[in-house]
């Protein structure tokens, strides 16, 4: 079944694209996300080990390590010694070489960018609810919400049988579900796991440590949620290029678009 047969696009010959608040929050959110990914990568370079549970450091077993800096499996330790005389006691040791640890600026930029994203996301959420944007453009209607339509939409994307130019915010079912997953699951998870890594925040709201199984688990979940968002961004950019890069950029910047059907 062809995607266009399931939800035929309107015969629009011109339009104004997206609303101004959608464009502004889209680009501010995009810039803050790029800054978060860049600064987050620098932070991860300083400690490329991820754990599960409450605590984790260079002397405790890691869930896995990432080969992204010279700190990866450096193994440069003097023989460790326990603090106390019982099994499982905390241990101490000294490094035998200098590690990469120039990430103070990265942490400052990460926190600043995070609050910018939260502020922008809150504005988008408020406008999205009260303008009817979510209900009108993102939530699937009764006719769309079926496995048959969903499977047909996925098949259409694999065949690249999608609209070749911009129709504004008139999304297919797969796009709607993807955007809803990003907006109402991945981004909240990113924010909440980020807050869970802050001792000051968890001192005031300790339930966050239980929700995410500890500060180190929150850090690992934060990493995987970010990875999914980066994959979403890459697919998003590829689809923009394949379906009319200039038209999409024009619709998401200056507003005036010329629309035709493939």
Automatic annotation (TrEMBL):
Topology in the membrane? Multi-pass membrane protein
Which InterPro entries does this chain map to? Cyt_b561_bac/Ni-Hgenase, Di-haem_cyt_TM, Hydrogenase_cytochrome
The record lists the organism as Dyadobacter pollutisoli
- Signal sequence span per UniProt? none
Q: Where are the transmembrane segments?
A: 27-46, 109-127, 179-201, 221-241
What name goes with this protein?
Answer: Cytochrome b/b6 domain-containing protein
Positions of the Cytochrome b561 bacterial/Ni-hydrogenase domain: 18-255
Q: Which GO terms describe its molecular function?
A: electron transfer activity; heme binding
The reply to whether Cell membrane figures as a keyword in the UniProt entry is yes
């Amino acid at each position: 079944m062809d995607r266009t047969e399931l939800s035929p696009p309107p015969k629009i010959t011109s339009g104004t694209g997206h609303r101004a608040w959608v464009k502004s929050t889209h680009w501010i959110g995009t810039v803050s996300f790029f800054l978060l990914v860049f600064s987050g990568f620098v932070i991860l370079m300083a400690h490329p080990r991820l754990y599960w549970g409450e605590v984790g450091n260079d002397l405790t077993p890691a869930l896995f390590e990432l080969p992204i800096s010279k700190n990866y499996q450096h193994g440069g330790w003097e023989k460790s010694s326990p603090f106390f005389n019982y099994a499982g006691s905390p241990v101490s040791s000294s490094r035998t070489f200098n590690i990469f640890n120039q990430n103070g600026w990265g942490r400052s930029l990460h926190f600043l960018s995070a609050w910018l994203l939260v502020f922008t996301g809150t504005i988008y959420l408020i406008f999205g609810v009260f303008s009817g944007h979510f209900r009108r453009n993102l939530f699937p209607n009764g006719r769309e919400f079926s496995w048959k339509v969903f499977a047909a939409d996925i098949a259409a994307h694999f065949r690249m049988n999608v609209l070749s130019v911009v129709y504004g915010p008139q999304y297919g079912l797969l796009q709607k579900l993807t955007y809803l997953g990003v907006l109402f699951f991945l981004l909240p998870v990113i924010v909440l796991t980020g807050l869970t890594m802050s001792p000051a925040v968890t001192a005031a709201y300790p339930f966050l440590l239980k929700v995410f199984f500890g500060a180190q688990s929150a850090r690992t979940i934060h990493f995987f949620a970010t990875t999914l968002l980066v994959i979403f961004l890459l697919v998003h950019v590829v689809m923009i290029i394949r379906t009319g890069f200039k038209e999409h950029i024009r619709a998401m910047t200056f507003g005036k678009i010329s629309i035709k059907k493939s």
